[in-house]
């Protein structure tokens, strides 16, 4: 087992691992135990009692956080004609067609989100093997395959977060930076929690949210009491 650093040991000593903290206390503690030398990201993690192998229990979507994520996201848009102009006017960082596809095939990935108009998906679909593993493939469920490219780009720039349950029933999502005010982080946390609660599949039985934690980049995980959300 890798030896923990002195800073990590000190951070762990502040956390009661047997306790589920109220959301306000958990966020404050996460910030206090951040050991990164930069403005670390706070991330929430949920373990849900669902079976992602079943189509009716797959949870996936997107949400624009009330206070953003604190990260400047680079948006690439596959569009042509008027839609390409709309994307540029909305603030997209890269807009194009086959030229961008060729760059990506060549190993270029200087972007965070990919948006595409439906008529471009035949071309974008050929990039599935390179975009898919990185979680960058456009999808209608996350609002990244759309004719309303203006809305898609503006939402990403405003702090849209995508979420997707993995094969083990976990969902991870950022809620902001350590430099954020506690209240803004709590508001973002509650916004994601509300969305996930509403996404509960009717087929899911028993306790839906089995574990909720918040952590910072390199920091310890802190259990959160779902009832406080």
TrEMBL record:
Alphabetically sorted, this entry's keywords are: Repressor, Ribonucleoprotein, Ribosomal protein, RNA-binding, rRNA-binding, Translation regulation, tRNA-binding
Q: Fetch the InterPro entries from UniProt.
A: Ribosom_uL1_bac-type, Ribosomal_uL1, Ribosomal_uL1-like, Ribosomal_uL1/biogenesis, Ribosomal_uL1_3-a/b-sand, Ribosomal_uL1_CS
From which domain of life does this come? Bacteria
Listed GO molecular functions?
Answer: rRNA binding; structural constituent of ribosome; tRNA binding
The cellular component terms of Gene Ontology attached to this UniProt record, alphabetical and capped at eight, are: large ribosomal subunit
Per the record, the GO terms for biological process are: regulation of translation; translation
- PROSITE patterns on file: RIBOSOMAL_L1
General function of this protein: Protein L1 is also a translational repressor protein, it controls the translation of the L11 operon by binding to its mRNA. Binds directly to 23S rRNA. The L1 stalk is quite mobile in the ribosome, and is involved in E site tRNA release.
Q: Which PANTHER family match?
A: 54S RIBOSOMAL PROTEIN L1, MITOCHONDRIAL, LARGE RIBOSOMAL SUBUNIT PROTEIN UL1M
Record family assignment: Belongs to the universal ribosomal protein uL1 family.
NCBIfam families, alphabetized: rplA_bact
* Subunit relationships: Part of the 50S ribosomal subunit.
Q: Which HAMAP family match?
A: Ribosomal_uL1_B
What is this protein called in UniProt? Answer: Large ribosomal subunit protein uL1
Q: Which organism is it from?
A: Tetragenococcus halophilus subsp. halophilus
